[in-house]
Every structure is written in C-alpha cells, then in structure tokens.
Amino acid sequence: MKEFLEIWDLIVRSNTFNFVLLVAIFYFLFKKINISKILDKLQQDIINTIENVRKNKNLAGIKLSQAKESVQNLDKDIEFQLEQANATAKSISDTIFKNTEKRIDLINGNVNKAIATEEKSLSAKLTEKAAAAAVAIAKNHIINTLKDRPDLHDKYIDESIQELDRIQL
Fold first, then answer.
1. pLDDT of 60-86, one tens digit each?
2. Residue boundaries of the structural domains of the chain
3. Residue 72: which H helix or E strand, with range?
4. Measured between alpha carbons, how far is 32 from 59 in angstroms, rounded to an integer?
5. What digits encode the pLDDT tens for the residues 115-149?
6. Is the pLDDT of residue 17 over 80?
7. Closest to 94 (Cα-Cα) out of 47, 53, 56, 45
8. How far is CA 38 from CA 45, 90, 103, in A?
9. Which stretches are transmembrane (predicted)?
10. Which of 59, 65, 90, 131 matches a 20 to 30 Å C-alpha distance to 48?
11. Which whole-number Å values give the CA distances from 91 to 47, 49, 52, in the listed order?
C-alpha cells in the first residue's frame, strides 16, 4: 500500500500528469462551451447580414430603375428614393460594422482573460518549484558545511543552548 501511495504521489507531482489533467479540463470546458459552434454561428450571422444588405441594396437599385421608367418626369422623387436607399444601406452597413467590432472585442477579451489566467497559473507553479529548489539547495549547503566542519555543529548547538538559557531567565 505504501508503494502504491508513493507511486501515486510521483504521478500526481509529475508535470506530464498535471499537463494531461489541464488538457482534459480545457477539453471538457471547450466541449461544454462549444466555442467553435458559437464562432460558426457568429460567422453565419455576419454572412447572412451581409447578404441581406446586398439584397436590400439590389432591391433599392431595382426600385430606383422602376421609378425612373415609370415616372420619368419626377426627377425629384427619384433623387429622394436614391438618397433614402443609400442612407438605408449606410445605416445597415454601419450597424453591421459596429456589431462585428463588438463581437471581435468580446472574443479578444475572452481570449485575453484565458491567456492571463494561464499565465498566472504557470507563474504560480514556477514560483512553487523555485522555492522548493531553493529550500533543497539551502538544506544541502548546511548539511555539507556541517560535514566539512564538524566544529561548527558543536558551536551551533552551544549557541542554541545559550539562547534557550537566556530566554528562560
């Protein structure tokens, strides 16, 4: 049982296991959120809107032609319809552009948040590993120093006893 716990501890502490666990979490998150479906829907909405704008523009052009043919003497009415069609096309175009920019900003914001979260996670892991390595190096240095100079061992013990005596008084 102890060997199993030691093996399990090695697996849990391994970078590969942590990486696989992180990939699995991201997989389930992306599967749950279904980002590709959302992006495809947004793309299709934009394509549909652009097609609608083109159809509206074409329809406005057709109406203009019909008006010219049916009412050749009413130039002012034709100019008004042309201005109205251009204003409608410009309005729809502006709306599409604004909506597209908002969606792009939203997607960029979400991507930046995901990147920032991952950066914080990696930074925390690196800091933890660096601290553990520093403690291990310091411990080895103290052990090696005491092995090289055993007189320091006695000196440190005496100093500690003196400090304890001073604290008790």
1. 999 888 877 776 666 777 788 889 989
2. 1-33, 34-168
3. none
4. 42
5. 899 889 998 899 999 888 888 898 888 888 878 88
6. no
7. 53
8. 10, 27, 11
9. 12-30
10. 65
11. 17, 13, 13
Who's near 123: CB < 8 A, 6+ residues apart? none
| Distance, CA of 111 to CA of 93 (rounded, Å) | 27
pTM recorded for the entire structure: 0.33
User: Which two structure tokens, joined as six digits, stand for 7?
Assistant: 């093996």
* Confidence (pLDDT) at 168: 63
Distances (CA, A) of 130 to 48, 58, 65, 121: 53, 66, 76, 14
User: Rounded to an integer, what is the distance from CA 52 to the centroid of its chain?
Assistant: 33
